[in-house]
């Protein structure tokens, strides 16, 4: 279960960023996320859909207790992530599309490191490792250094590392981004498996087809705000496609901004 | 189950030991540098010196009046091939082109000056070379002997004892022990080398463990783990400190081994004194000071490395820092700079000065305590600052 309410986050702007933002920008900070509220339930897949720069990664990093919000509350499997970030992270697996492995460590050492950081007891590690390695076919190259593995192999090791501690909540941040079809399929299968196991799954994407394929619930994020959230069938009740609904919401939001549509 | 800090430490150590670049900077270079420098350079210098010393010098003597007897004198000196010439003007060019090793010019009026008991001018034309100027010194020594002979003749003609020219028989006694003398020589070099190795040994792991992790995209995974920022910092920190200290220890081992093996040409008395300097108690005392300094280096390096967006940027940010490390270490070599209550508080300089005093065996315990306490405080400050640095979102996610 993930519960977030009123998440708000600003970032200070560096001199270089201020130059890039142009003369129209004033102030010392940019608001990345404002008043974001949603809930993800166990056994369901919740998708955060939004264009690049919408604030999805910032939201997910706050949920993973990597960033501290300026305002709002986050609960991960019943744990207040702001009061006890370490306990919250113990219940969470986090995978991004840019996640890499430690190239000088073997596949097994990479997974073992994650398990040790999470404090997984040895018998549990053995059991989980055997099951995951067999399911993902990692046994054949478990002893090889990650630097010698193909992209697909690395992705499978990254998956095993993400769920080796059997987290109740799994967060995917554009996890298929930049991957080939085979590697992306492994991620999609992991999302389905996690849902089947009753885990809470939250994933961010800008790929519409992934949403229709995987999501039970959806929040459309644009310019740091949630434009609409709810079960996917309800959001598409009018018979519109996900693309049509997304464009409609974004256009309406831009039109409502001071100065009209962007 | 281990503490996350220990888990991070073990992983980072394993990862670091598999990095060839780090192994070179941490193990191979410090271990081999001293033996290669000391043995290699000593042998090279000796062979070059012996070569020049044993060489027959081709010297031309141009005697304007032809009555000085200098050519005949030099011809009898071993290792001289003397040619007489009248062409004085050509001599500088012949020496410059190395057709001659040196030339001696006896201008007109030499005999008259001698007869009048005035100084008679003799010109030596030579070319300063990179062979320790041995050629010039050999010719000057021979001319000195010739001058001594003339002086003896002059004194004899006056009926004076040659001892009359030495009114004072100066006898000097150096009360400094060979260890003190060596302390001044080695004391400048050793801390400089050890501090530098502490820094360079820690540099690559620090870059790899922060900027490298950021660039590779593994930092986010680590930050999303249940390890707290402090635990992550401590684990990484311990590895960086360890590599710096290891590098300095290996430099000491390399030096000790090369001294134990004996270096050809270095007098046994000096070798014995070096061995005395490298006694375990002296080394232990030196490393007691280097440990907190390494901790401080690790903190500074990790902070700069984390600030950088990439491995490349980290190198460009950190490399100039080496100057900041070298300058205070070299200041200790300046005359008159001594360990005092003030210099004991200046980082790096205090280690250099304290090490010099330790090696010379003249260290005052209160000063050493002050150095250690100030370094320990600096190290503690470094750890706290580094932990805070790792908690700053704008630094950790600076891309």
Count of helical segments of chain B? 16
**Portion in helices of chain A:** 25-40%
Largest interface, per-chain counts?
A-B, 33 and 26 residues
Strand content of chain B: 5-15%
First-to-last CA distance of chain A: 36 Å
How is the topology of this model organized?
The complex is a heterodimer of chains A (262) and B (399).
Chain A: E1 2-12, H1 15-21, E2 29-40, E3 45-49, H2 56-63, E4 71-76, E5 79-80, H3 85-90, E6 92-96, H4 107-117, H5 122-136, H6 151-163, E7 169-173, H7 181-196, E8 200-205, H8 208-214, E9 217-222, E10 225-231, H9 232-235, H10 242-256
Helix pairs in contact in A: 4-6, 6-7
Chain B: H1 4-17, H2 20-54, E1 57-63, H3 70-76, E2 80-85, H4 91-96, E3 102-106, H5 110-115, E4 123-126, H6 134-157, H7 178-216, H8 219-223, H9 229-261, H10 268-277, H11 280-307, H12 311-318, H13 321-331, H14 349-360, H15 365-391, H16 393-396
Question: Could you characterize the architecture of this molecule?
Answer:
The complex is a heterodimer of chains A (262) and B (399). Chain A is of the alpha/beta class. Helix content of chain A is 39%, strand content 25%. Chain A is built from ten helices and ten strands. Chain A has a six-stranded mixed β-sheet with strand order 6-7-8-3-9-10, with helices on both faces. In chain A, strands 2-1-4-5 form a four-stranded antiparallel β-sheet. The longest helix of chain A is centred in the C-terminal third of the chain and has 16 residues, at 181-196. Chain A is globular and about 60 Å long. With 399 residues, chain B is mostly helical. Chain B has 16 helices and four strands. Chain B has helices at residues 4-17, 20-54, 70-76, 91-96, 110-115, 134-157, 178-216, 219-223, 229-261, 268-277, 280-307, 311-318, 321-331, 349-360, 365-391, 393-396; strands at 57-63, 80-85, 102-106, 123-126. A four-stranded mixed β-sheet of chain B has the order 2-1-3-4. Chain B is elongated, with a radius of gyration of 31 Å. Chain B starts with a helix and ends with a helix. The model of chain B has no long low-confidence stretch (mean pLDDT 85). Chain A binds chain B through residues 11-12, 61, 64-68, 85-87, 89-90, 92, 94, 96, 98-105, 109, 113-114, 116-119, 121, 161, and chain B through 1-2, 4, 7-8, 11, 14-15, 18-19, 216-218, 220-228, 393-394, 396-397.
